[in-house]
Design brief:
This protein has about 220 residues and is α/β, with parallel strands linked by helices. It contains 9 helices and 8 strands. The protein has helices spanning about 5-15, 35-45, 55-65, 85-90, 100-115, 135-150, 165-180, 195-200, 210, and strands spanning about 25-30, 50, 70-75, 95, 120, 155, 185, 205. Bound molecules: pyridoxal-5'-phosphate (PLP). Pyridoxal 5'-phosphate (PLP)-binding protein, which is involved in PLP homeostasis.
Length: about 220
């Protein structure tokens, strides 16, 4: 696969779903990829990237940004409150707001720093113990709490369980978003982004299908 293949497939999926061309944002997930692969995608003109660790993002993106200042960086992995300030400084969007303590910390920092990335609230649609995100039953309350803190809530994010049909989780996320008046949906990865687009994804997070298999495992 290449960047062009993926963007072609996104365009086809948008059109098949009766959605406007360009309505889906491709986040190229560059975590643990060698710099030359990331650079190749930058050279092809792509400017929206995802990382799942603040530390790793801080290690590589300031340098890339010297050459490609219009890069947008999305944090898609768990965020510890002690890294929240750094995340705000580095990132244009955070997809992993998943608990009141983090929401309050982001609100306080946003006030102090006079800026805040776009935020997505992560929903643990599969109610998995090992996964971050608020359970579907707690979603409405937490979304209201974030809005009460004046946070710029762009939408919702989910990572379906590996062994289940992702479409069921995408549909659930879309329902929760709709009843809360949100239209941003961060869902769909290399194996299932077309299905996510059919179900309303506005942001797809695609890593290995663009860059190739990750060279070393994440954890
Ligand atoms: C790694 C990662 C992705 C991309 O996964 P691929 O299967 O390589 O496309 C998407 N979302 C999150 C949250 C990730 O951590």
């Amino acid at each position: 696969m290449s960047l062009q293949d993926i963007t072609d497939r996104i365009t086809k999926a948008e059109s098949a779903a009766g959605r406007a061309e360009g309505s889906v944002q491709l986040i190229a997930v560059s975590k643990v990829q060698p710099n030359d692969r990331v650079e190749a995608v930058l050279e092809q003109g792509h400017r929206c990237f995802g990382e799942n660790r603040v530390q790793e993002a801080a290690g590589k993106w300031p340098t890339f940004r010297e050459r490609f200042p219009d890069v947008a960086l999305h944090l898609i992995g768990p965020l510890q409150t002690n890294k929240a300030r750094q995340a705000i400084e580095l990132c244009d969007a955070i997809h992993s707001v998943d608990r009141p303590k983090l929401a309050k910390s982001l609100a306080r920092l946003a006030q102090e720093m006079g800026t805040c990335p776009e935020l997505f609230i992560q929903i643990n649609t599969g109610e998995e113990d090992q996964k971050a995100g608020v359970f579907p039953a707690d979603a409405d309350t937490f979304i209201a709490e974030c809005r009460g803190l004046d946070l710029p809530v762009r939408g919702l994010m989910c990572i379906p369980p590996v062994d289940e049909e992702p479409a069921l989780h995408f549909a659930l996320l879309a329902r929760i978003a709709e009843r809360n008046g949100l239209d941003g949906l961060s869902m769909g990865m290399s194996g299932d982004f077309e299905s996510a687009i059919t179900l309303g994804a506005t942001h797809v997070r695609v890593g290995s299908a663009i860059f190739g298999a990750r060279v070393r495992p994440q954890e």
